[in-house]
Amino acid sequence: MTNTETDEPRIPGTTLFDGEMAMKGYALNKMCFSFNDARAREEFLADEEAYCDKFGLTDAQKAAIRDRDVLELIAQGGNIYYLAKFTGMFGWNMQDIGAQQAGMPLEEFKAMLVRAGG
Amino acid sequence: MARVIGGITTSHIPAIWIAIVNELQEDPYWKPFFDGYPPVRQWLSARKPDVAVVFYNDHGLNFFVDNMPTFAVGAAFEYHNADEGWGLKPMPAFEGDPELSWHVINSLVEDEFDITTCQEMLVDHGFAIPMTLLWPGHSWSGVKVIPICINTVQHPYPTPARCYRFGQAVGRAIESCDKDLDVVVIGTGGMSHQLDGARAGFINKEFDLMCMEKIVNEPEELLHYTIRELVRLAGTQGPEFIQWLAMRGALGTHPVKKLHSNYHIPISNTGAGLLLLETTAA
Asked: Who among B60, B205, B231 is closest to A117 (CB)?
């Protein structure tokens, strides 16, 4: 098995979703993939713990889901595109979760992007 | 004979869909982005392509990591999108051209590109937003489509060089079809952006502008990049540029003419690049 993260120097603040992460996050991502379906979203919101158990999430993955902690979800094998269906349930867009991961208030995150474009 | 008449690149981020739904085209934040599109729409109205071949990446609507194709070619009579988990109203259906799809599929495999074929395929924002930007108000009824999805969900992604050659093979396939069809090829996504990780919000204007310049008539100078280098230079989603390279490959080896371009940064977390390229005679 090849882990692309170990072949070359790390890119700061970046996790590549490779084979190792895809295996680690399979159950988590499968649950998030299910949220494409509105009925699955309703079922999750009615009983989050039971829905996580249905997909066999680990305790660490369940804790990260409870905490809505995107960086930890990625560390637990989550893929950003499937995770976006989870965070979308709370009305969070890519700038909301970008700010959360970068550890800054939303307005500061937006201002950082505007500055980078200037 | 079928002809590739030109190529278009465009952003495809979901925030555009929301901006269109909320009619924010004249909003100061969005105006410099949307103002890039009328010249491209005018060209499409004048040239009236019969078919649009769209290179894009699925973001977890149609494909899960249980079965993840590297190159997937649509061969459906009709394609649908969906709310993708966000409660947005799906767009009207897109009409396929299964006859041309199968011609392309047969030609690609003969050309040693062993693709996945999809007789059912949900098309997500990577496909649908470019369609609604280029044919606003869902006015795509006269244009048949062939969606071609290139994996940028799970590493390893195909290399930039491979995607360019894949695009060349798609171009050869189209031009070997004996039907009288005008085809436009579209590459969606990009440009620099990073959605995930503590480096979220990383963008690189200088690199984006270099890519937009080189891809016109020096695309081969962009083929040495590895996917990892694209991540480092353009963010975790920067490798979506492989969709652009596939589009450029499909335009063939003759010089192309840049008819229009627009670059605006930032739109949400991204640099947004729009190009209209026209093929020229040998």
From this structure: B205
